[in-house]
Design a protein that fits this description.
35% of the residues lie in helices and 20% in strands. It contains six helices and seven strands; from the N terminus they run E-H-E-E-E-H-E-E-H-E-H-H-H. The radius of gyration is 16 Å and the shape is globular.
């Protein structure tokens, strides 16, 4: 969707697209880093490097569907994601409805996504912190399925910090283009179409 869009003449940031995860090599490829994985894919497709340090994050700038966007991966660790996001929001004067959150969701099977216009944190601690520090739940979000715990007694922290097996890696890989397309639709103010198409 965003690949063939016209370039915008506006150089100021209009949207913030945030992938949630934990920084550090030990967390690369873990289920909890599905948001980072999705943002990295988006950046690759846009031929943008997300490597500048700003707003307690690594960031890059891109034109998505004709709109200038800040791509960001908070370096605060998941539970403090709101520190980074609200700092960027204040700097660019971006309202919550123009901050798109990409995050993991244990209630969705791997390979599934769910798009929401706004709402509660759904038990996702990064989203919870963003809502708490911003005072708003009006963030569009794309929840990326990472699968339920294998059995009820499995420790939740151990599960979300585990790595995707080969089958799940393939399912996630097949889902990434849908996430990127949904981001393009949301930035075009067409979240209803994104939800109808991918929920």
């Amino acid at each position: 969707m965003f690949f063939k869009s016209k370039q915008s003449g506006n150089n100021s940031i209009e949207y913030i697209i945030v992938g949630l995860g934990n920084p550090g090599r030990q967390y690369e490829g873990t289920r909890h880093n599905a948001g980072f994985i999705a943002l990295n894919y988006l950046a690759d497709q846009l031929n943008v490097k997300v490597n500048r340090i700003k707003f307690k994050s690594t960031v890059g700038e891109a034109t998505v569907a004709g709109h200038r966007c800040l791509l960001m991966k908070p370096s605060t660790f998941m539970n403090l994601s709101g520190q980074a996001v609200t700092e960027a929001m204040r700097f660019y004067k971006i309202p919550p409805e123009k901050v798109v959150i990409l995050c993991d969701d244990i209630n969705l099977d791997v390979g599934k996504i769910r798009i929401r216009r706004k709402g509660s944190d759904g038990g996702q601690n990064g989203v919870k912190n963003i809502i708490y520090l911003s005072g708003s739940d009006e963030f569009p979000r794309i929840k990326v399925g990472i699968g339920k715990k294998p059995h009820p007694d499995y420790d939740l922290k151990d599960w979300v910090l585990s790595r995707f097996n080969d089958k799940d890696k393939q399912l996630l890989k097949e889902t990434l283009p849908k996430i990127a397309d949904a981001v393009g639709l949301i930035v075009c103010d067409d979240i209803d179409r994104a939800m109808n198409q991918y929920n």
